[in-house]
């Protein structure tokens, strides 16, 4: 039997005591991420809801004082760095300015000033009602945040930088709004100057037109680019198809889809930020654990063609490519044996056959040409180290197949050039 409880009696705040995270094991998380092949980990330090997952002096509504009563971010940082990975951090607090605003419409505890320090400001502006919200927040020149809010947001961001030293600082959308511009300059200066003091290289991750392209790193949410970018960029997506967070009815991408996405992104000078959605008890689902493990197993054999590489003269060949832009990563792309992606490192081109069929691999851009040709010295199958026979013809290069070509995930040919 379900009982309806009025929202003015039980609101969002009342979920916090239920959030125990009693199975949260940062060492187990870090080990899983390490085994998945991850090189950096970027937890959400604070989401749009305004509940900080770290110990902060500016917000009593945080995981160190309520709910789990643990500094979740501090513990993740220690575990991640203990495994030799890089700790990064994301903050979505900017959008909290309007995130709770629909609570102003009816009878809810959002209207109770007792909880204003959690729900506030919950602005009631027509531009930010549920029918206009996405159009408004995408518009750089739409009504923005107050000076009081922006100053508070800036101070909290600087505190996060000073306490946890994230090597990447990720912002979600809406900071491209015109009212944020003066504050973004101050935050960027503060963060990059701190990095200079720490003696490390850092970057800010942004969406839309929040920063000039050479000041920070551009991010494409749940999407990718269609060609090589001259500047490094990031794609962020989730294993879950229905939600970034946990839900019992979530559907999950396959490890093959995520591996092909990773290869495509790297071939275009990008990096992949992959989200998992832990349960409220702090555990990571069996489905996501299995997928991360499978990705890690593939990277153990083929990671040489991913890590430390750069783009080649073309990102790939074949008929299949992305539909460029945000929120375009839902279905697995229907690659064939004719689709390849290329990366480059140390005089070698790494050619990934995106959907091997077990037959000879044929790469057109490596066809033998009489003028200004490059010499192919040797080709090996990266996953096994086997040297492969090949024939460079006038219209294509044919790599002779063997039993190791049969795979449900991409295979990689290491092509050593003279």
What's the quick description here?
With 418 residues, the chain is an alpha/beta fold. The protein has 9 helices and 18 strands.
Notes on the structure:
With 418 residues, the chain is of the alpha/beta class. The chain is 24% helix and 17% strand. It has a 7-stranded parallel β-sheet, with helices on one face. Strand 14 (376-381) and strand 15 (386-387) form a beta hairpin. The longest helix has 18 residues, at 147-164.
Question: What secondary-structure arrangement, pairings included, does this model have?
Answer:
Blueprint: H1 26-35, E1 40-41, E2 44-46, H2 72-82, E3 86-87, E4 89-91, H3 96-99, H4 116-119, H5 133-138, H6 147-164, E5 168-171, H7 181-198, E6 203-206, E7 217-221, E8 233-238, H8 255-267, E9 270-275, H9 286-302, E10 316-317, E11 340-345, E12 348-353, E13 361-363, E14 376-381, E15 386-387, E16 390-392, E17 397-399, E18 411-417
Parallel strand pairs: 1-3, 2-4, 4-5, 5-6, 6-7, 7-8, 8-9
Antiparallel strand pairs: 10-11, 11-12, 12-18, 13-17, 14-15, 14-18, 16-17
């Amino acid at each position: 039997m379900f009982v309806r409880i009025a929202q003015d009696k039980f609101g969002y705040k009342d979920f916090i005591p239920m959030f125990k995270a009693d199975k949260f094991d940062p060492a187990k998380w870090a080990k899983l991420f390490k085994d998945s092949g991850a090189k950096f980990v970027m937890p959400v330090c604070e989401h749009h809801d305004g509940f900080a997952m770290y110990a902060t002096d500016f917000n009593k509504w945080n995981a160190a004082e309520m709910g789990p009563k643990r500094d979740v971010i501090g513990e993740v940082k220690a575990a991640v760095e203990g495994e030799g990975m890089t700790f990064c951090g994301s903050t979505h607090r900017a959008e909290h300015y309007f995130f709770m605003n629909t609570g102003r419409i009816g009878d809810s505890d959002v209207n109770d000033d007792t909880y204003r320090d959690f729900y506030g400001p919950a602005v009631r502006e027509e531009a930010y009602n549920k029918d206009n919200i996405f159009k408004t927040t995408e518009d750089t020149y739409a009504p923005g945040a107050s000076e009081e809010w922006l100053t508070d947001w800036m101070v909290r961001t600087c505190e996060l930088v000073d306490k946890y030293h994230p090597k990447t600082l990720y912002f979600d959308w809406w900071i491209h709004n015109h009212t944020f511009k003066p504050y973004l300059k101050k935050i960027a200066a503060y963060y990059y100057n701190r990095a200079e003091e720490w003696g490390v290289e850092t970057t800010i991750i942004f969406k839309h037109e929040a920063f000039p392209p050479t000041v920070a790193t551009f991010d494409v949410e749940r999407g990718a680019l269609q060609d090589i970018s001259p500047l490094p960029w990031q794609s962020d997506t989730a294993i879950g198809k229905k939600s970034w967070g946990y839900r019992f009815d979530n559907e999950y991408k396959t490890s093959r889809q995520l591996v092909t996405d990773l290869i495509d992104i790297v071939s275009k000078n990008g990096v992949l930020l992959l989200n998992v959605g832990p349960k409220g008890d702090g555990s990571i689902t069996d489905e996501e654990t299995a997928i991360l493990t499978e990705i890690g197993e593939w990277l153990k054999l083929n990671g040489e063609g991913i890590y430390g590489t750069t783009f080649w003269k073309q990102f790939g060949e074949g008929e299949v490519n992305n539909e460029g832009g945000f929120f375009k990563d839902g279905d697995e792309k229907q690659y064939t044996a004719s689709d390849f992606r290329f990366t480059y490192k140390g005089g070698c081109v790494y050619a990934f056959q995106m959907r091997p069929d077990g037959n000879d691999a044929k790469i057109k851009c490596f066809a033998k040409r009489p003028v200004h040709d490059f010499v192919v010295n040797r080709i090996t199958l990266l996953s096994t180290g086997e040297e492969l026979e090949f024939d460079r013809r006038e219209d294509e290069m044919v790599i002779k197949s063997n039993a190791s070509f049969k795979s449900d995930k991409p295979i990689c040919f290491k092509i050593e050039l003279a």
